[in-house]
Amino acid sequence: MTTKVTIVDFGAGNLLSVARAFRHCGATVELAETAEQVTRADRLVLPGVGAFADSMTGVQSRGLIEPLKAYAATGRPFLGVCVGMQMLFDGSEEFGHHPGLGLVPGMVRRIPATGTDGRPVKVPHIGWNQLITDHWGQGLLAGLSDPASVYFVHSFAGQPDDRADILAECAYGGHRVLAAVRRGNLIGCQFHPEKSGETGLTMIRNFLVL
Amino acid sequence: MANLRLIARLDIKGPNLIKGIQLEGVRVVGDPQTFARRYYQQGADEILYMDAVASLYNRDTLTNIVRRTAEEVFVPITVGGGLRSVDDVRDMLRAGADKVAINSAATLRPELISEVAERFGSQCMVLQIDAKRSGPGRWEVYRDCGREHTDLDVVEWARRGQELGAGEILLTSVDREGTRKGFDWELVKAVNDAVTIPVIASGGMGTFDHLPEVVEKGGADAVAIAYMLHYDKLTLPAIREKSLARNLPVRKL
Question: Which EC number(s) are documented for this chain (chain A) (predicted)?
Answer without folding.
Answer: 4.3.2.10, 3.5.1.2
